[in-house]
Amino acid sequence: MTIQIPGPIGPLEAIVEGPEEGVTPQPVICIICHPLSTEGGSLHNKVVTMTSRALRESGVSTIRFNFRCVGGSIGEFDHGQGESEDLVAVAAYAAENFPDHELWLAGFSFGAYVSIKNAKRLNAKFLISIAPPVGRDWDFAAIDLPECPWLIVQGDADEIVDPEKVYEWVSSLTDLAEPPELVKVPETTHFFHRRLMDLRGVIKNSIKRHLPNA
Question: What residues contact residue 175 under an 8 Å CB cut-off, 6+ apart?
Fold first, then answer.
């Protein structure tokens, strides 16, 4: 269902989807953040939609939304600052409409940066980061790191995000009470070309033990 969520500067376009039929519903709502707005990222990105599919096949409800300046969402690109406020607005919608659900966050590339940056602020209970853009234009050193269970998925043949920088960054996260689970996907490019089903499997397998009704 496509809806308009009130955002900090105007409406945000979003799609809300429930669990797939035939699976045990989970009291979890996951907000999924898309890749870079200025490079064609949107809620229709294939990695974003596959992430949503994997979650819904596991009983989780999802919200995919467009950051400001994308699709039907109002505003201009704001380098992660305004986009953080967009995410906060969507989280407020989720809290109002799914009051008995845990909040999970997921993000791909730029969306991974925004969701990581705001996971602690929003008290997320689980975080999925796909190809986080470490070493690019975003300051990961300044992030107040999340304190929830955390899955990081990185393609070994990523041509946009340097996999080695991601691996080094993950290795540096020694102060966390629960280290992230890092899954390296071999022979896989940034957009998981021909590897989307592998991504689906990684997500479904990794979240099993974190589902409230597992």
Answer: 145
Pick from 151, 145, 113, 114: which is nearest to 132 by CA? Answer: 113
Phi–psi pair at 29, nearest 5 degrees: -120, 125
Range of the domain at 35: 2-210
Q: Structure tokens of 103?
A: 């909040």
- Residue with structure tokens 């939609």? 49
Report how many domains make up the chain. 1
pLDDT tens, residue by residue, 57-99: 999 999 999 999 999 999 999 999 999 999 999 999 999 999 9
Partnered with residue 32 across adjacent β-strands are 64, 106
pLDDT of residue 36: 98
Q: Which of 16, 27, 149, 5 is nearest to 87 (CA)?
A: 5
Backbone angles phi, psi at 36, to 5 degrees: -55, 125
Question: Distance (Å, rounded) from C-alpha 60 to C-alpha 73?
Answer: 24
- Quote the tokens at residue 155: 């393609």
Which conformational region is residue 22 in: left (phi greater than 0), alpha (psi within -120 to 50 degrees), or beta? left
187 burial (CB, 10 Å; 0-12 / 13-18 / 19+) is: exposed
Percent of the chain scored above 90 by pLDDT? 95
| Alpha-carbon span 109 to 156, nearest angstrom | 14
Which domain CATH number covers 43? 3.40.50.1820
